[in-house]
């Protein structure tokens, strides 16, 4: 086994069952959906209704955006989804049931009727069939899939993305309120200490730019995906570690839709991104020495049937009163490399599942550096899953889905109220230092001043894309 490049594409807010639950049917070695899974909806007045898992018969533009509106993903929402309710609609105090997804969905605030329909109870129980997510499914079958990969914590996006970069969420369970500066030690700094290169490839704004320890080398290490990733892969210029972030916002000028797959964004745009990443890596001269990991930061309120197991706390502060002693809900994880046997079902050797800190553990094992926290120290790495002979080249390329965006779809997406991720990213853009600034002094100022107010709602009607682009340009200088 000879791995010199690790590439991670982290998408948004989809559970394992939602995207890959039907990848292999009636297979005892694969923990997917049987089709009998269900939740009970505890309606007002003591009434109950059984809501089973289901799939749309075809992938229409509407079906590609289910669930719409966006499910709940706050720490308290996820607790209800995992724990479930009892017959009288009260919190379940017994073992977790994974039975609270519908109940939590129907307790969310009503969406804007101009952009989203009212919540439909079955929406969070929806899953996609393999032919509806052909890119992700083909790669999972041609290489490997892990049905034992959990989000690092039962929390929102930012805490889980912090875990993949730092092995901790610094004690914060939600995206907001924001707590700049985020000064946790990062895997990128460990790579630098080990004399290894890294880059973050992004579309509009990288959430990883919130990490203050990356600001000194931002101009060198943050690059636009559309401008450079595919060329870097083609010319053999990929670093030891590449982390890819999707497009989070709708760009009305360039007519670009989000490709992060965050509900209710159209999953087909994310499928196109996955195909582009794979094709670039597969065609490059570094293919034989590359490990590509495709995963999702958290489940985003979409149903999964597997109860998250206990986790090793990362240690450190606990300002929100939670020690992070449990994993989050399962998320998709597809492992791509010539060293992965075709059709592999990849599980860790012991009871601890893979989670986002397994990326850190893999890099630490590969490039010989110390762990960041007790969590990533306890995480299983992926190198033991590379049991092939290096000859699995998979498909030479995968067709990139083409998605037609109508003016009506674009306008609706622009007008949609900002989700929690977008609000946080808007705040992040405001606090980034400008290229050439005294980073230490900037961090000190942030530590002494309150964070800017979050983006108002609705906000995307006055699209922040141009403002964010201006902040990113200032952050990265002439890039």
Automatic annotation (TrEMBL):
SUPFAM superfamilies associated with the record: Alkaline phosphatase-like
GO molecular function: phosphoric ester hydrolase activity
UniProt GO BP: phospholipid catabolic process
Presence of the UniProt keyword Cell inner membrane in the record: no
Name of one Pfam family that matches: Phosphoesterase
Gene3D superfamilies, A to Z: Alkaline Phosphatase, subunit A
InterPro entries to which the protein is assigned, alphabetical: Alkaline_phosphatase_core_sf (IPR017850), Phosphoesterase (IPR007312)
Keyword entries, A-Z: Hydrolase
Protein name: Phospholipase
Organism: Rhodopila globiformis (Rhodopseudomonas globiformis)
């Amino acid at each position: 086994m000879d791995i010199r490049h690790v590439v991670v594409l982290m998408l948004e807010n989809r559970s394992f069952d939602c995207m890959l639950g039907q990848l292999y049917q009636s297979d005892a070695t694969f923990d997917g959906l049987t089709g009998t899974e269900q939740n009970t909806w505890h309606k007002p007045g003591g009434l109950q209704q059984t809501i089973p898992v289901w799939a749309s018969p075809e992938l229409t533009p509407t079906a590609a955006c289910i669930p719409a509106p966006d499910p709940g993903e706050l720490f308290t929402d996820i607790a209800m989804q995992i724990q479930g309710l009892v017959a009288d609609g009260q919190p379940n105090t017994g073992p977790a049931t994974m039975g609270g997804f519908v109940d939590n969905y129907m307790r969310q605030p009503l969406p804007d009727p101009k952009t989203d329909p009212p919540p439909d109870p079955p929406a969070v129980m929806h899953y996609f069939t393999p032919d509806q997510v052909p890119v992700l499914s083909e790669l999972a079958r041609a290489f490997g899939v892990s049905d034992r990969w959990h989000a690092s914590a039962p929390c929102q996006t930012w805490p889980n993305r912090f875990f993949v970069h730092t092995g901790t969420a610094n004690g914060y369970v939600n995206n907001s309120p924001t707590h700049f500066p985020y000064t946790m030690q990062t895997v990128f700094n460990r790579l630098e200490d080990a004399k290894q290169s890294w880059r973050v490839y992004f579309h509009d704004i990288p959430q990883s730019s919130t990490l203050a320890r990356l600001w000194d080398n931002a101009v060198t290490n943050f690059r636009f995906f559309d401008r450079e990733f595919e060329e870097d892969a083609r010319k053999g210029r990929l670093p030891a570690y590449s982390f890819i972030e999707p497009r989070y916002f709708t760009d009305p000028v360039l007519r670009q839709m989000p490709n992060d797959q965050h509900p209710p964004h159209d999953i087909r745009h994310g499928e196109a991104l996955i195909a582009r990443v794979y094709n670039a890596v597969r065609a490059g001269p570094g293919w034989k020495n590359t490990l590509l990991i495709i995963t999702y930061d958290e489940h985003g309120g979409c149903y999964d049937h597997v109860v998250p197991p206990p986790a090793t706390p990362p240690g450190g502060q606990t300002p929100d009163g939670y020690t992070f002693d449990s994993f989050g809900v399962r998320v998709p994880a597809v492992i791509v490399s010539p060293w992965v046997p075709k059709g592999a079902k990849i599980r860790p050797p012991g009871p601890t599942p893979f989670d986002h800190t397994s990326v850190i553990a893999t890099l630490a094992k590969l490039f010989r550096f110390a762990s960041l926290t007790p969590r990533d120290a306890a995480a299983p790495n992926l190198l033991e899953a590379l049991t092939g002979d290096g000859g699995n080249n998979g498909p030479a390329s995968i067709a990139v889905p083409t998605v037609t965006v109508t003016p009506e779809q674009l306008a609706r997406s622009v007008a949609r109220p900002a989700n929690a991720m977008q609000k946080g990213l808007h705040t992040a853009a405001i606090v980034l230092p400008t290229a050439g600034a005294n980073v230490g002094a900037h961090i000190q100022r942030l530590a002494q001043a309150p964070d800017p107010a979050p983006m108002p709602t609705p906000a995307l009607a006055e699209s922040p894309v141009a403002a964010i682009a201006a902040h990113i340009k200032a952050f990265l200088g002439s890039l």
